[in-house]
Amino acid sequence: MSIPLLLPLIFGPLTAQQAIPALETVASATAVNGEVYFRPGDLLLGDPNLPGRPAIRPLQGNAAFMLPSDLSDYETLSGACPRSRDEARDVQARANAASATIARGDIGGDGVIEVATLERRGDPAAAWVQVTRAGKRLAEAQLPVPAWPCTGLVSEVDSDAIPDLVVVWSTWGADGRTIGVTVYKLPSAP
Question: What is the pLDDT of residues 112-133, one digit of tens each?
Answer without folding.
Answer: 777 777 776 655 556 778 888 8
